[in-house]
Design brief:
Strand order of the largest sheet: 3-2-1-4
Structural class: alpha+beta
Strand content: 25-35%
Shape: elongated
Number of strands: 4
Amino acid sequence: MSEVGVVYETASVTTEALAHLGDGLIAYVKQIRSEDVPGLFPQAPRIAPGLKLFALHAADGTPIMLTDSREAAIANAWSQELQAVSVH
């Protein structure tokens, strides 16, 4: 009887492929501070400092929308047929 060895090679995922994982399917909700808004949403009007807001991002990190409630961010994801997940 002979021994049969099985060799598995790990599949490597490129950074680019990882960045596009979930495109058009998944969005994430992240709590941010109003001080972070200009960097994420340059077109947004000036917002008072110290506010807790929620940003909806596409799977690749592209900001989609800004709101003052987590529920509104999730509802917006659903309206765009995206599965929303939370990020801490």
